């Protein structure tokens, strides 16, 4: 019966490992799923400032995780408006308020937003040879999109720091290059 016990033990262990992968397997961030784009109803989806609208039938990968955070985390800086009527959609997730685009504020991809754990924390952004401190006020949703709540915009990639124009100004990026920049960031 001993062989049976060992067999049962190993099978049990295997089932546990498959069902609950240990942290080492969790270090790489895999997609959580995907959604099919829906055509925005007319008047929806603000395309100002190069915001992208969902394309009917296009597949968009979704994530609930982001790459691990270090003292120099690689990310892509994008431009967002946090003001009322801006391309950011509704008010900020952290405090349900709008924020002036003249203040350095950011939204982070879902995994980095951590369900609000970084709300009102400051992060340091390094890019274009300069550095700026910005406050986290919102989530750039990597897990959902292409619906009214997200202004019919696709889900956010999982490595985005979506920043107000004040951040772009502070980094000294010339206006024609606003929109997409390789940066690193860290918790302050
Ligand atoms: C971060 O980006 C730099 C420059 O593109 C690259 O050399 C480095 O390997 C990246 N680091 C990680 C952890 O992805
Ligand atoms: C577009 O960007 C400009 C400069 O940041 C800003 O003043 C304007 O409100 C933005 N428009 C929208 C719709 O977000």
UniProtKB/TrEMBL annotation:
Which keywords label this protein? Secreted, Signal
Q: Which domain of life is it from?
A: Eukaryota
Pfam family for this entry, one? KWL1
* Compartments where located: Secreted
Q: Which InterPro entries match?
A: Kiwellin-like (IPR039271), RlpA-like_sf (IPR036908)
Q: Which GO cellular component term is one of those annotated?
A: extracellular region
Identify its protein family.
Answer: Belongs to the kiwellin family.
Q: Any idea what this protein is called?
A: RlpA-like double-psi beta-barrel domain-containing protein
């Amino acid at each position: 019966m001993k062989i049976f016990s060992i067999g049962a033990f190993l099978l049990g262990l295997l089932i546990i490992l498959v069902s609950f992968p240990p942290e080492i397997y969790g270090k790489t961030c895999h997609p959580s799923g995907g959604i099919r784009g829906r055509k925005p109803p007319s008047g929806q989806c603000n395309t100002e400032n190069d915001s992208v609208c969902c394309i009917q039938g296009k597949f968009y990968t979704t994530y609930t995780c982001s790459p691990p955070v270090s003292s120099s985390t690689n990310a892509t800086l994008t431009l967002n408006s946090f003001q009322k009527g801006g391309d950011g959609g509704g008010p900020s997730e952290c405090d349900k308020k709008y924020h002036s685009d003249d203040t350095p504020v950011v939204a982070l991809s879902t995994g980095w937003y951590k369900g609000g754990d970084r709300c009102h924390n400051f992060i340091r952004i390094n890019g274009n040879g300069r550095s700026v401190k910005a406050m986290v006020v919102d989530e750039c949703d990597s897990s959902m999109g292409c619906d009214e709540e997200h202004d019919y915009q696709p889900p956010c990639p999982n490595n985005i720091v979506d920043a107000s124009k004040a951040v772009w100004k502070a980094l000294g990026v010339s206006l024609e290059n606003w929109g997409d920049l390789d940066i690193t960031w860290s918790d302050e």
